[in-house]
Amino acid sequence: MLVAIAIIGGSVGPVLMLYGLRGLSGVAGALLLNLEAVFTMMLAVTIFGERFSAREAMAAVIVLAGAVLVSLHGGPVRGERMAAMTIALACLAWAVDNNLTARLADRNAVDIVQFKAMTAGVGNLILASATGRALPSLTIIAVAAAVGFVSYGLSIMFDVYALRYVGAARESAYFATAPFAGAIAAIPLLGQGVAYNEAAGGVVMAAGVALLIAARR
What we know:
Layout: H1 2-21, H2 26-32, H3 35-46, H4 54-70, H5 81-103, H6 109-130, H7 138-175, H8 178-190, H9 196-216
């Protein structure tokens, strides 16, 4: 199961996300990552037997409706529907990852993160080499390693603890707050504006996340 987690969550998901981001604005890409929460809930309830209240189910539907709004008007800003679909597939991969990890959440979180990071890292290096990609400069490698330590290493470790205590379905509710931070950061960091459909979709998604967290309480 650990190997499946490493491949699906550590390799398939990130590769799909990077391809999707090539055709999307940073704001749209970040907002669409809310689909991970919806897919995680769906799998947790339909396949892995977790229970969900009617209010939580309604919240998931609202988040999904927000994702549809982001994808209106022929695709997100400076992107295409295919890019949005690729992001959605990445979210589905991470939803599978979340639910499988929840089955192992009682194990040592650091061990899980180490195995997943090392396996996925080696696999991605092999994939990059096989497709003719050259290694970047040492500066880029150092910066990437620092970002990965925080965004993947510490993040995944804390996420494993969350899965242990609240389960995959409800963990996704709290995790769904992250895309909003990414969307907000994209505006000053990338110098991007916000389209009307992105703003409307973000508001709808925020309402769904707020309802989900309130239902959990």
